[in-house]
C-alpha cells in the first residue's frame, strides 16, 4: 500500500505498525510524489492525508480518479467537520479517519477495503447526445466538452440519473447543496440558468424544462 503523509514522525509510526501487521508500505510526503508513485506501482490501497504541502489530499484523490486509478483510498484528516468528510467521499475516497486515530482501526478498515477490491470505473451516463463521466467529472454535448462548476455538475448528475423525472427545488437543494441553505432561496433557479447557458443555448437545444409549480426535469431525449 501507499501512505501519503507529510508528518515524517507519524508516517514512520504508521509504517512500522503496518509492517508489523504484514503490510508492505511505501511512503510519499507530497501529493505530487503520490501521483507519480501510483502511476509507477499498482498499490492495493492508499492512505491519503488531506493536509499536504503542495497538492492537498482532495485534489490528489480527484486526480487519481480522473486518471482511472481506482485502488481503495482512506482519507486521513485532522478536520472533523462533516463538510470535509463529505467532500473527501465526493472526490472519490472510499473511507476516512479523523486524526488522532487508532492504528488498530486503520488496519481493520484497510483489510475491509482490500477484501472489497478496487472499485470499477463508473460508467459514462448518456441522455441523447449529452454525456457525463462521474469518474473524471467531465461532460460533453456531442463531441464538445462542457466545463461545469462542482455545483453545476452535481445538479446535472441528479437530472441525468433520472431523465424525465421532475425534481422539486427542495430535492435539488438536498442533492447539490449543504444543509444550511434555506429552501426559500432562489439559488436553484440561478444554477438552472447557468446550466442552460452551458449545455443548451450554445447548441440551440432545450433539455432542462421548467414544470410550472412543481420543479425541473431533463428531457429523456436530452434536448436532441
In terms of per-residue confidence, which ranges show pLDDT below 50 for 5 or more consecutive residues? none
Number of strand segments = 11
Could you report the average pLDDT, rounded to the nearest whole number? 86
The major sheet is characterized as: 5 strands, parallel
Q: Could you write a compact summary of the structure shown?
A:
This protein is an alpha/beta fold. It has helices spanning 8-20, 31-40, 57-66, 82-90, 103-116, 150-161, 169-176, 187-200, and strands at residues 2-4, 26-28, 46-49, 73-77, 95-98, 125-127, 130-133, 138-141, 144-146, 208-211, 215-218. A hairpin with a 2-residue loop joins strand 8 and strand 9 (144-146).
Q: Main attributes?
A:
alpha/beta; 5-stranded parallel β-sheet
Description of the structure:
Helix content is 40%, strand content 18%. The protein has 224 residues and is of the alpha/beta class. The strands form 3 sheets. The protein has a 5-stranded parallel β-sheet, with helices on both faces. The chain has a 4-stranded antiparallel β-sheet with strand order 6-7-8-9, with helices on one face. A two-stranded antiparallel sheet has the order 10-11. Helix 6 packs across helix 8 (187-200). The mean pLDDT is 86.
Amino acid at each position: 500500500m501507499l501512505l501519503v503523509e507529510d508528518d515524517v514522525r507519524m508516517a514512520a509510526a504508521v509504517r512500522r505498525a503496518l509492517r508489523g501487521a504484514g503490510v508492505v508500505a511505501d511512503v510519499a510526503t507530497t501529493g505530487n510524489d503520490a501521483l507519480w508513485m501510483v502511476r509507477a506501482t499498482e498499490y492495493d490501497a492508499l492512505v491519503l492525508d488531506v493536509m499536504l504541502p503542495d497538492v492537498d489530499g482532495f485534489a490528489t484523490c480527484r486526480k487519481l480518479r480522473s486518471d482511472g486509478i481506482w485502488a481503495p483510498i482512506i482519507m486521513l484528516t485532522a478536520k472533523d467537520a462533516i463538510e470535509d468528510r463529505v467532500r473527501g467521499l465526493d472526490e472519490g475516497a472510499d473511507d476516512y479517519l479523523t486524526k488522532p486515530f487508532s492504528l488498530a482501526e486503520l488496519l481493520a478498515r484497510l483489510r475491509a477495503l482490500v477484501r472489497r477490491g478496487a472499485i470499477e470505473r463508473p460508467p459514462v451516463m448518456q441522455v441523447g447526445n449529452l454525456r457525463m463521466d462521474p469518474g473524471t467529472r467531465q461532460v460533453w454535448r456531442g463531441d464538445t466538452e462542457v466545463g461545469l462548476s462542482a455545483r453545476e455538475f452535481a445538479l446535472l448528475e441528479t437530472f441525468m440519473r433520472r431523465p424525465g423525472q421532475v425534481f422539486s427545488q427542495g430535492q435539488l437543494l438536498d442533492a447539490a447543496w449543504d444543509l444550511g441553505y434555506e429552501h426559500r432561496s432562489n439559488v436553484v433557479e440561478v444554477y438552472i440558468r447557468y446550466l442552460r447557458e452551458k449545455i443548451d443555448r450554445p447548441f440551440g437545444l432545450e433539455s432542462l424544462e421548467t414544470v410550472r409549480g412543481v420543479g425541473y426535469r431533463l428531457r429523456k431525449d436530452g434536448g436532441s
